[in-house]
Design goal:
By secondary structure, the protein is α+β, with helices and mostly antiparallel strands. It has 3 helices and 9 strands, in the order αββαβββββαββ. The strands form 2 sheets. A 5-stranded antiparallel beta sheet has the order 2-8-4-5-7, with no helix packed on it. Strands 1-9-3-6 form a 4-stranded antiparallel beta sheet.
Protein backbone atom coordinates (compact mmCIF):
# COMPACT_ATOMS: atom_id res chain seq x y z
CA UNK A 1 0.00 0.00 0.00
CA UNK A 2 1.42 3.33 -0.96
CA UNK A 3 1.04 6.09 1.56
CA UNK A 4 0.38 9.53 0.35
CA UNK A 5 2.46 12.47 1.35
CA UNK A 6 -0.50 13.93 3.26
CA UNK A 7 -0.96 10.66 5.15
CA UNK A 8 2.76 10.57 6.12
CA UNK A 9 2.61 14.14 7.44
CA UNK A 10 -0.46 13.31 9.57
CA UNK A 11 1.25 10.14 10.84
CA UNK A 12 4.34 12.16 11.85
CA UNK A 13 2.17 14.76 13.65
CA UNK A 14 0.44 11.95 15.53
CA UNK A 15 3.79 10.41 16.46
CA UNK A 16 5.02 13.81 17.60
CA UNK A 17 1.97 14.23 19.86
CA UNK A 18 2.46 10.73 21.30
CA UNK A 19 6.13 11.52 21.89
CA UNK A 20 5.30 14.85 23.61
CA UNK A 21 2.61 13.20 25.76
CA UNK A 22 5.06 10.45 26.76
CA UNK A 23 7.74 13.01 27.64
CA UNK A 24 5.25 14.96 29.77
CA UNK A 25 4.12 11.79 31.54
CA UNK A 26 7.79 10.85 32.16
CA UNK A 27 8.54 14.31 33.58
CA UNK A 28 5.57 14.10 35.97
CA UNK A 29 6.61 10.59 36.99
CA UNK A 30 10.17 11.79 37.70
CA UNK A 31 8.84 14.55 39.96
CA UNK A 32 6.67 12.05 41.81
CA UNK A 33 9.64 9.69 42.11
CA UNK A 34 11.84 12.48 43.45
CA UNK A 35 9.15 13.37 46.01
CA UNK A 36 8.83 9.71 46.99
CA UNK A 37 12.60 9.49 47.53
CA UNK A 38 12.61 12.49 49.90
CA UNK A 39 12.91 11.07 53.38
CA UNK A 40 11.77 13.01 56.43
CA UNK A 41 12.46 11.58 59.87
CA UNK A 42 13.25 12.68 63.40
CA UNK A 43 16.54 12.23 65.23
CA UNK A 44 16.55 12.23 69.00
CA UNK A 45 15.54 13.21 71.49
CA UNK A 46 19.04 13.83 72.80
CA UNK A 47 18.96 14.05 76.55
CA UNK A 48 21.66 16.25 78.09
CA UNK A 49 22.03 17.10 81.77
CA UNK A 50 24.08 20.08 82.89
CA UNK A 51 24.53 22.34 85.90
CA UNK A 52 23.69 26.01 86.08
CA UNK A 53 25.23 28.16 88.76
CA UNK A 54 25.78 29.05 91.35
CA UNK A 55 25.57 32.44 89.68
CA UNK A 56 25.01 35.99 90.77
CA UNK A 57 22.35 38.16 89.17
CA UNK A 58 23.39 39.57 85.80
CA UNK A 59 24.34 38.26 82.39
CA UNK A 60 24.41 34.47 82.17
CA UNK A 61 26.00 32.21 79.53
CA UNK A 62 26.28 28.40 79.70
CA UNK A 63 27.50 25.96 77.02
CA UNK A 64 27.23 22.20 76.61
CA UNK A 65 28.15 19.81 73.82
CA UNK A 66 25.79 17.54 71.95
CA UNK A 67 28.01 14.97 70.33
CA UNK A 68 26.20 13.65 67.31
CA UNK A 69 27.39 10.10 67.93
CA UNK A 70 24.40 8.36 66.47
CA UNK A 71 23.27 10.92 63.91
CA UNK A 72 25.18 9.24 61.09
CA UNK A 73 23.81 5.85 62.18
CA UNK A 74 20.23 7.17 62.29
CA UNK A 75 20.59 8.61 58.77
CA UNK A 76 22.01 5.30 57.50
CA UNK A 77 19.21 3.39 59.26
CA UNK A 78 16.76 5.49 57.25
CA UNK A 79 18.45 4.62 53.96
CA UNK A 80 20.65 7.67 53.50
CA UNK A 81 24.08 9.11 54.07
CA UNK A 82 25.48 12.43 55.33
CA UNK A 83 26.22 13.34 51.68
CA UNK A 84 22.48 13.21 50.95
CA UNK A 85 21.57 15.45 53.86
CA UNK A 86 19.31 18.20 52.55
CA UNK A 87 17.76 19.81 55.62
CA UNK A 88 18.06 19.64 59.42
CA UNK A 89 15.78 21.67 61.67
CA UNK A 90 15.18 21.73 65.38
CA UNK A 91 11.88 20.01 66.12
CA UNK A 92 11.69 20.44 69.88
CA UNK A 93 13.80 21.73 72.75
CA UNK A 94 12.63 21.31 76.32
CA UNK A 95 14.53 22.56 79.37
CA UNK A 96 13.57 21.03 82.74
CA UNK A 97 14.84 21.79 86.25
CA UNK A 98 15.85 18.50 87.89
CA UNK A 99 16.94 19.89 91.29
CA UNK A 100 18.33 23.02 92.89
CA UNK A 101 16.16 26.02 92.07
CA UNK A 102 12.41 25.41 92.37
CA UNK A 103 11.66 27.01 88.99
CA UNK A 104 12.99 29.30 86.25
CA UNK A 105 11.80 32.51 87.99
CA UNK A 106 15.35 33.87 88.35
CA UNK A 107 15.73 33.98 84.54
CA UNK A 108 14.43 37.01 82.64
CA UNK A 109 14.60 35.34 79.20
CA UNK A 110 16.37 32.50 77.39
CA UNK A 111 18.19 32.47 74.05
CA UNK A 112 19.54 29.25 72.55
CA UNK A 113 22.41 29.18 70.07
CA UNK A 114 24.25 26.42 68.21
CA UNK A 115 27.88 26.50 67.16
CA UNK A 116 30.60 24.09 66.10
CA UNK A 117 34.38 24.30 66.27
CA UNK A 118 34.35 25.70 62.70
CA UNK A 119 31.07 27.65 62.62
CA UNK A 120 29.99 30.68 64.62
CA UNK A 121 26.97 30.94 66.91
CA UNK A 122 23.54 30.90 65.30
CA UNK A 123 20.41 31.78 67.31
CA UNK A 124 17.95 28.89 67.05
CA UNK A 125 15.60 29.36 69.99
CA UNK A 126 14.27 31.96 72.40
CA UNK A 127 11.77 32.68 75.10
CA UNK A 128 11.50 36.44 75.54
CA UNK A 129 9.79 36.28 78.92
CA UNK A 130 9.67 33.45 81.42
CA UNK A 131 6.27 32.94 83.05
CA UNK A 132 6.55 32.54 86.83
CA UNK A 133 6.50 29.17 88.53
CA UNK A 134 7.60 27.03 85.56
CA UNK A 135 9.96 24.08 85.99
CA UNK A 136 9.83 23.18 82.28
CA UNK A 137 10.38 25.55 79.35
CA UNK A 138 9.68 24.98 75.66
CA UNK A 139 11.20 27.90 73.72
CA UNK A 140 10.24 29.21 70.29
CA UNK A 141 12.45 27.68 67.58
CA UNK A 142 13.78 29.06 64.32
CA UNK A 143 13.08 27.21 61.08
CA UNK A 144 16.65 27.69 59.86
CA UNK A 145 18.37 24.80 58.11
CA UNK A 146 21.13 23.51 60.40
CA UNK A 147 22.56 21.04 57.86
CA UNK A 148 26.02 22.63 57.84
CA UNK A 149 26.16 22.52 61.64
CA UNK A 150 25.00 18.89 61.74
CA UNK A 151 27.64 17.84 59.22
CA UNK A 152 30.35 19.07 61.60
CA UNK A 153 29.59 16.08 63.88
CA UNK A 154 29.64 17.92 67.21
CA UNK A 155 27.29 20.74 68.08
CA UNK A 156 27.67 23.02 71.08
CA UNK A 157 24.45 24.40 72.53
CA UNK A 158 24.83 27.82 74.17
CA UNK A 159 22.22 29.19 76.58
CA UNK A 160 22.15 32.93 77.23
CA UNK A 161 20.01 34.76 79.74
CA UNK A 162 19.79 37.59 82.20
CA UNK A 163 19.42 36.59 85.85
CA UNK A 164 17.06 38.70 87.96
CA UNK A 165 18.44 37.15 91.14
CA UNK A 166 21.21 34.85 92.34
CA UNK A 167 20.77 31.12 91.68
CA UNK A 168 22.09 28.10 93.57
CA UNK A 169 23.68 25.13 91.82
CA UNK A 170 20.82 23.81 89.68
CA UNK A 171 20.71 20.63 87.62
CA UNK A 172 18.85 21.08 84.32
CA UNK A 173 18.05 18.63 81.55
CA UNK A 174 17.61 19.49 77.89
CA UNK A 175 15.69 17.27 75.49
CA UNK A 176 16.59 18.14 71.89
CA UNK A 177 15.02 16.61 68.77
CA UNK A 178 15.79 17.32 65.12
CA UNK A 179 13.81 16.78 61.91
CA UNK A 180 15.95 15.59 58.98
CA UNK A 181 15.28 15.53 55.24
CA UNK A 182 17.37 13.56 52.76
Amino acid sequence: MIETKKHLIMKRKTNLWVLLASALLFAVSCDELADALNLDFDIGPYYVEFNLGPEDAGEFVESFDVIAHNIVQKIEDNGGSMDQLDMVKLKTVTLTIMNGEDNFDAFEYFEIYVKTPLMSEKKVGWLNTIPTGLTTLTPNLSTDNLKDYMQEGEITIVLKSQLNSNIVLTNVSADIEFTVNL
